Amino acid sequence: MTLAELESALLQAMTGDDWVSLISQCFDAYDLSFGHGTENSRDEAYWLLRSKQNWDDAVWEGVPDPALIASIVDLVSRRVNERKPLAYLLGEAWFAGLRFIIDERVLVPRSPLSELISGQFSPWCRLQNGDRILDLGTGSGCLAVAAAHYCPGVLVDAVDVSPEALEVARVNVAEHNLGERVRVIESNLFDALEDCYQVIISNPPYVPESRIGELPREYSHEPDLALVGGVRGLSLVAEILVQSSRYLVSNGILVVEVGESREAFVSEYPDLPAIWLEFEHGGDGVFVLTRDELTGYLNS
Fold it and tell me: Is the dihedral of CA 182, 239, 187, 212 positive or negative?
């Protein structure tokens, strides 16, 4: 379905589901790559329409407003021609059931860590009021905000080396009214930190340098600083492993996502007793280590 055909078809369609199907068909005709908040064209079409309807359920149940057609076709046109992730075009993304304001200063939120966070890090720890969580490389602040949202009474430090990313994180902390429990800190990993934490979480850059040029065009709109993890994808991960034990309480845990670099990680650290998590809703490449395991490995 071409863009011209889409506009004509939307004028004839009478339900939200019909509009979603038509937009999805148009996306499919242009061989888009997904993975920035959705896994397929239909989910992305649904997101586009609901966003333009301001996520109003009553509006969704009614006949779609023809006045939306021009802006929807324009967004579809930009999506297929620029290959820009829909999240950037809409200025929003959803993570762990929460809405985040985003732009090209940060990665589009997408991580299986949402499942662990919404479950309050069970069974790996039992958080208490006043416990601290550190989010290293916070980007949009999605992990930090979600952790504060799902773990009431916990204090969260959201750290990033990028001042531009931290501007976005501050917006999201304010949007969720979490300024009293989430601190946004500019720091190169642990350099500006003094506290110790019950949980350290991180979704650092882990794409090997050689892989960047192979990624679909959608990824070219994201900041390289948040994607590229050195030759093997493990440059920052190595630093996190070395330093984390000094910033964890005695029974604290480190949770890190290394995604497609899992195989390289296992090859690089064959004796590290990392536990690889399985997720009900998909995703992999996330490991957990306790402070004792980190300390024992580094001192062995």
Answer: negative
